[in-house]
Amino acid sequence: MQIFSYLCSDFKYMTAKILIIDGDISLSTVLSDYLSSRGYIAQAVPQGKAGLDALSDGHWDVVMMELQGIGMNGYDLLKDIRHREPAIPLIVLTTRSDREDQMRAFQLGADDYQTKPFSMDILICRIEAILRRVRALEESKQKMFELNGHFFDAAHQTFDKEHMSSRESDLLLMLCRHEGEVVDRHKILSALWKADNAFTARSLGVYINHLRRFLTPAGYQIIAVRYKGYKLVNKS
Fold this sequence. Notes:
Blueprint (H helix, E strand, L loop, with lengths): L16 E5 L3 H13 L3 E5 L2 H10 L4 E4 L8 H11 L5 E5 L4 H9 L4 E4 L4 H20 L4 E4 L2 E4 L4 E2 L2 E2 L2 H12 L4 E3 H9 L4 H18 L4 E6 L3 E6 L2
Parallel strand pairs: 1-2, 1-3, 3-4, 4-5
Antiparallel strand pairs: 6-7, 7-8, 8-9, 10-12, 11-12
């Protein structure tokens, strides 16, 4: 694998979390370190089962996986990931270059297919392109939410017509879009504060308390999940 200088200077999604599943530990370590140096949150695991466990334990923005040398059939893993996470971007990074392998991977739900060796700058730009499409879809999603007869309008930053700050609105929008699911604390801080440190973590806690003031009358609760993040739940 060749590593070149970073070419995509307008990249806006450098805080994305990327899971790498590859039995080639030396390669995956280099890849993980390089992605981390570019601002991503990257984790590499050598086995398919460990990848599925990691996928269950937290939110990921992109999965990159090898088809072989991962302790299980790569196509079965691809199929399982797509079944569990229908919308997650999935990039196959593999030594298999046959046309049939590529076709099968795409048929099972891969979003991109890159053969080894590959240039790192091109891979970064492929990730950027995928995340740009994902972001466009997210931004087109519903921005009005009904919570037990109370209304949150993210477009106008109001809750029952009471004005909210931009950060309150953006934070509640993230929680509403994943109601009942744990929203990763690091993802929140990276997306809204553009930094993940002790100061921004305390600030997040303050804004969570602000939101509870809006949500308690609506019968909703924000639960802090230790070491993970926050979850919006309907108590009614």
